[in-house]
Fold this sequence. Notes:
With 184 residues, the chain is mainly alpha-helical. It contains 10 helices and 2 strands, in the order αβαβαααααααα. The protein has a two-stranded parallel ribbon. Helix 7 packs antiparallel against helix 9.
Amino acid sequence: MGQEVISKICFVCSDMWEPYLKLSRERCSEALHVLDRFHIVSNMNKALDRVRAEESGRMQREGRNPILKKSRWLLLKRSENLQDEQHFRLRDLLRYNLKTVRAYLLKEAFQQLWDYNSPGWAGKFLDEWRRQTMRSRIEPMKKIARSLRNHRELILNYFRAQKLLSSGVVEGLNNKAKLTMRKS
């Protein structure tokens, strides 16, 4: 792009992939680098799904009732996007003391982070959420907590940028392009 254009960049929004982070540090060191909310939530959902799959498989091998069968989208969808029937099924599922349920509750609690406006308060919330998650003994969620600890300042830059940046639109376009290519 040339140094003249790069010097005018004020914000960079990316996921946590190390080559992106390194390139941003090297080339756009003056810009405020924001970790994209979409990717953070996506990683959280992948961790929850890993917990669900492991626990469901273990329950099946032990010959226990397949409580978690067909529950993937109940747990991954945002609660406001669930249909009435799904709300009832989720409510019933949440009554069980399962790792999957605890991971789901951690994921849902994490969503409160996005309600903050101040980087200071958001940081306090993030630190407390990480402490709770590290005590949870749910390894995929603990891995996410460690990752968030390593990228704390970049996450808080979302609030410093006044919550204006997200690559959600670009990701949506990428997904549509991928879908079109698969169909063709």
